[in-house]
Specification:
Length: 272
């Protein structure tokens, strides 16, 4: 069974409406990329569509020197929010360099060192938006307190961030983060109330990992021969599991959260 995301979307739209009513100018975001992979193109397409929907001035900037560009745009008053695509092509920079450099007030994806630190202190404002998306969808399905949640994948922006936000005091889920070296993955996933899968392997999760009735949040965006697949096998869709679809699931909410964050950044920009 497919998990519907319309309630989560409605709540985000309400939040956007409230912020919008406080703004007098059109918020502006830029997406900077030195590496237009298929996954990045897909995200940028989604960003453009959703930015238009909410009245955000959106542009893509292609560059081969992200650090140079960030030094310029970080202090540009006309720009409210900045997105930097990953993975980076320019190997002179590490992701942590970008995370240290990006102006935290414009960090709509919540990946800067400052905002990640705030998240660990359980203060969520700009948090990694893909992880926030997965959590918002899951919270709409169940009360998380005391639930066993298995997170497959330990990436900074999804697995790690989702785990930290799930176990914080006002959610109090019991979280297991797994990785490619985990020995007894099936034993863990079989006991889970919910599984968040973010490993970037097309249709990796099959039904022998999961007991019926489990909630599955599919974060995967995998392009194979130009076609989009999630991390969950489509064999599970018509069975007794609850699954977020790809496309039209986590990705849609992620893009909407990114836009909500542009509005938040625009408010911060006024106050500066
Ligand atoms: N700094 C950074 N953060 C990211 O989160 C990031 C990134 N770089 N680089 C690329 C990947 C890929 N990614 C997608 C997210 C949503 C959709 C999405 O919304 N896709 C639509 C489908 C669009 C289509 O059909 O092409 C959907 O799922 O409904 C796609 C791709 C985020 N990534």
């Amino acid at each position: 069974m497919i998990i519907k995301i319309d309630k989560v979307l409605e709540k985000l739209e309400d939040e956007i409406d409230i912020i919008k009513s406080k703004l007098i100018k059109t918020p502006k975001m830029i997406s900077i990329s030195d590496n237009l992979t298929s996954a990045t193109r897909s995200y940028l397409k989604s960003q453009k569509k959703i930015a238009n929907k909410y009245g955000i001035d959106f542009s893509v900037i292609e560059t081969d020197d992200i650090v140079k560009d960030l030094n310029k745009y970080n202090n540009d008053k006309n720009i409210d929010g900045i997105f930097v695509s990953r993975p980076l092509k320019n190997k002179n920079y590490q992701e942590i360099d970008i995370a240290r450099l990006l102006n935290p007030n414009k960090d709509i994806e919540g990946l800067s060192v400052y905002n990640m630190g705030e998240m660990v202190y359980e203060n969520e404002y700009f948090v990694p938006c893909t992880a926030e998306s997965a959590i918002k969808i899951l919270e709409n399905c169940m009360d998380l307190e005391g639930k066993n949640i298995v997170v497959i994948g330990r990436s900074i922006n999804v697995g790690k961030a989702a785990a930290i936000m799930l176990e914080r005091k006002n959610r109090s889920a019991t979280v297991t983060i797994t990785n490619s070296r985990t020995k007894n993955l099936k034993e863990l996933t079989m006991k889970a109330d919910a599984v968040i899968v973010a490993i970037g392997k097309a249709e990796y999760l099959t039904k022998d990992f999961i007991k019926e009735g489990t909630y599955i949040i599919d974060v995967g965006i995998n392009f194979k021969n130009g076609k989009l697949f999630g991390d969950v096998s489509k064999d599970l869709y018509d069975k007794n599991y609850y699954i977020t679809p790809v496309p039209g699931g986590v990705g849609t909410i992620t893009s909407t959260i990114l836009m909500r964050n542009v509005f938040r950044a625009a408010i911060k920009n006024i106050k500066q």
